[in-house]
Known about the structure:
69% of the residues lie in helices and 0% in strands. It has 140 residues and is mainly alpha-helical. It has one domain (2-137). The longest helix is centred in the last third of the chain and has 26 residues, at 112-137. It holds the Pfam family DUF6691.
Amino acid sequence: MRMLWAAIAGGLFGLGLIVSGMTNTRKVLGWLDFFGDWDPTLAFVMGGAILPMAAAWAFARRRRPVLGGRFPEANTSGPDRALALGAVLFGMGWGLVGLCPGPALASLSFGGWQGLVFLIAMAAGMYLAPPIKRRLTKPA
């Protein structure tokens, strides 16, 4: 049953990415082009995602998931070096290509070979990140 609900949620998420234009790399890159041909429409997409999620977290604060398990604990320690580095790398990839992981998967159905190349590079980065992190954080 959990897999069915996960598939439904993933399908809705992908549909939302397509409808909102988040899979259109020109629209995303236009959002990031502050000093050129700036396209502010993705601000509404982001606000439309952040506001309901904030309400959902507030609602779920003292509840348990319907399908079992536990909600993840809130991070109370604040940002750290790993988060900052990850955010910078994510932002660089998003700015260079105009895709992030969710839209990259959604665009596979129509993105052509460029989307597949991006997805392969993204998967390689995800595969290589843990051993690189272990090496960088290994005590001297």
